[in-house]
Amino acid sequence: MRIAFTAPMKPLDDPVPSGDRTMGRLLVRALELAGHEVRIATRFRSWSREGGVSRQNRIEADAREEARRIGDDWAREGYRPDGFLTYHLYHKAPDWIGPALADRFATAYAVVEASRAPKRRTGEWAHGFAAADMALARADRVAALHRADHECLADVVPQDRLQLLAPFLDAAPFLDMPHQRAAPRAPLRLLAVGMMREGAKLASYQVLAEALRGLDRTTYHLTIAGDGPCRDDVVSLMRGLPVTLAGEVAASDMARLYAAHDLLVWPAVREAFGFVFLEAQAAGLGVVGGATFGVPDIVAEGKSALLSPEGDAPALAANLSRLLADPVRVSTMGEAARAHIRARHTLDAGATRLDAFLHGALRHHASTARQ
Which of 82, 244, 250, 319 is within CB 3.0–4.6 Å of 1 for a Cys-Cys bond? Predict the structure, then answer.
């Protein structure tokens, strides 16, 4: 089928790497793998760092003008999509374009990764919140990528139009990369991957540093892959610990980096799910992390991962201690991690689930059109 696609949170060609951009690109690849013809309808970005009704009104006016322009172009061309798919909308990044074009061309409208924070119903984000709710009301199918979002969305999206869609990745480069060591031995090689910026990322580094300071420093060595404006803060946090800062690592080199380590450790403060957890498991690394939002949905708790409450540094340290004292279990977790990814989170698996999701949206649209 012909699918028109947009990502109001961040365009797919945005120069700043992020999990959001990665997931958007993977959705397009999965659609094409499933045999669909995908057209990027627009790279319009409705996301705004700041709230306020006047600012949101300006963004809405620009978005509606963009929708009119696209619609006129499609009409002249004779193009009509079978469905319109929007990736990632919420109060800071509403979607006015997808619903407008779906209505104009009488086609299905679907949303992957919507989130909803009821506390934003009033205040500076009220206009964006209401706009996101209107898009959800128009949607023939809505997918959440983790349970926390699914629970919030259930208040406004009927159960027959709402589902969980497990995240996925192009696992082949990671699954195919052999480990550089047959079996872990002391000191265990730990890896953390995360941008160094204010907010949740820096908070994760703070939790990580606190956890590491409670461990025997002869039993591990940590490599940190990542860079950013808070690098000096991270350097300060890790001072005196057996840590190497590798800086920003190219995406093409990540599989090799994972394969050179034994465990991924990341507190995941306020993270939706974290692609690093998928990548690390595919590369055969067990995970020690925080049980935040969607992280429990993409690991096999107790088999491929040990999770601790979000922000709980002593609990994170306790899980690390267990594994530092048991290298055999580290190997077993790595094997379980790869098996978990093969079973649930490959690009093929994602394409199958996404195809079923879209066909569900088309069925719902057809049924409502007949009413």
Answer: 82
